[in-house]
Amino acid sequence: SSGPSAAPPPIETHLLVGRRPSAPSALGAPPRMQRNSRLPAMACAALALLAALASARLHGLVAAHQNLDRANASGHAADDAVARPGCVWVERFVVDNKCKDELVIKGWAERVPPGKEVTIQAHRSTDLMRLSWRLAHGPWDYDYIEVNGPFKGAPQELCAHPNYATWFGFTTSSRFEALDPQTGAPACADAGAEVDFSEATCPTTSSDRFACDFHATPQSLKDCSSPAASYQKANTFAVNGDGSRSPLFSCAPGQIGEWCGVSTNYPCDPGAPSWPGWRVATWLDCCERRKSIVFKLTVCV
Predict the structure, then answer these.
(1) H or E element that contains 74
(2) 4-13 contact pairs (CB < 8 A, 24+)
C-alpha cells in the first residue's frame, strides 16, 4: 500500500474584505475615503466562511489522524478505508461464556467467569493461528477455531477466513461471529458458524482430554461417513447474514456470492475419497467488503 497522502495546504486567513486604498493624489493629500455600507456585512460573511472552512478542516484532520492511528496499529497505509482488500478490521474481541465453569482462552492470562461477557483488550503472542478455549476445571484439551491468520487480539486487521476443525472431539458447543460494531447484527452474508454439540448426544465416549473424544486416527479421519463425522456434519451450522442457521451458507434464489454453499467445519480429512467436496470458510463476504467487525465467541450456546 502507498504511504499517507501529503498534508493539505494551510487555510488562507488573510481574506480581502474591502477595497485597496487609492494611491496619493498629485497634491500629496490622500483622497477622502468613501464609506462602504456593505463592508460590515461582507466582513461578517467572510469570517463566517472562514469559520466554516476551519471547522471542516478540523473534522477532516481528526478523521485523518484516526485513520493514521488505525493504520499504524495494523501496519498498512492510512489511505485504506477500513482494511486492505481481502481483510477485515477487528475492532473488538468479545467472549460470551454461557458455561457453568470459567473459560481459559489460550494465549491470554484473563479468564472469563461463567455467565459473563468480556471484551478482551490485551494482545497475545502464542496460539496465533487458532482461537482455543477450555473449561478451567477440565477436561484438559482445548476446543478451537482455525483462524487461519495471525490473530494477536483487537484492534487488528485480519486477512483470513476462520473455520471449525472439530475432528478430534469436543467439550463445549460454541459459535463465532463477525458482528457490526454499531448494531450488533451480522456484519456480512457469511457472518459465522456454530457447532451445536452436546455431551448427552456424543456418538463416542468421554476422556480426560474431551467431554466427547472421537479417538481420531489418520485412518479414522479418512472415513467421512463414520459416526463421528456424521455427527459433526449434522450439528454444524453456518450463520447467515440474517442471523439464520443452515448446514451450508445459504443464498436467495438468483443471488451470486462466493460464500454460497460453503461449509464451516472439517468433520474429516478433506483429502479422503469420501469428502463431500465442500469448500470450508467464513467471512468471504466480510473480507471482500473490508468490514469493520466485532469478533465474538460464544461458548456453551
Answers:
(1) helix 39-74
(2) 4/68, 4/71, 4/77, 4/78, 4/79, 5/78, 5/79, 8/57, 8/60, 11/50, 11/53, 11/54, 11/57, 13/50
Decide: 1 and 84 in contact? Cβ < 8 Å.
Answer: yes
Which pTM value belongs to this model?
Answer: 0.74
Place of cell 467436496: 277
CA neighbours closer than 13 Å in the CB half-sphere of residue 243: 5
Identify the burial level of 210 via C-beta atoms within 10 angstroms of its C-beta, where 0-12 means exposed, 13-18 middle and 19 or more buried.
buried
| Residue 249, all three cell numbers | 451458507
**Rounded to whole angstroms, how far apart are CA atoms 18 and 35?**
11
Residue 282 in 3-state DSSP? coil
* pLDDT single digits (tens) 131-162: 999 999 999 999 999 999 999 999 999 999 99
One-letter amino acid for residue 212 of the chain: C
259 or 5, higher pLDDT: 259
Q: Which residues pair with 195 in a beta bridge?
A: 174, 236
| Whole-number CA gyration radius for the chain | 30
Please tell me the number of Cα atoms within 13 Å of 175 on its side-chain side: 22
299 bridge partner residues = 97, 174
Query: pLDDT tens digits for 71-111?
Result: 344 333 333 448 999 999 999 999 999 999 999 999 999 89
- Could you tell me whether strands 174-179 and 292-299 are parallel, antiparallel, or unpaired per DSSP bridges? antiparallel
Residue pair 162/283 in contact (Cβ under 8 Å)? The answer is: yes
pLDDT score for 46: 53
Instruction: Kindly report the number of other CB atoms within 10 A of residue 187's CB atom.
Output: 26
Measure CA 214 to chain center: 32
Are 120 and 95 in contact, with CB atoms under 8 Å apart?
yes
Using alpha carbons only, what angle is made at residue 76 by residues 74 and 81, rounded to the nearest 5 degrees? 95
Q: Which residues pair with 263 in a beta bridge?
A: 280
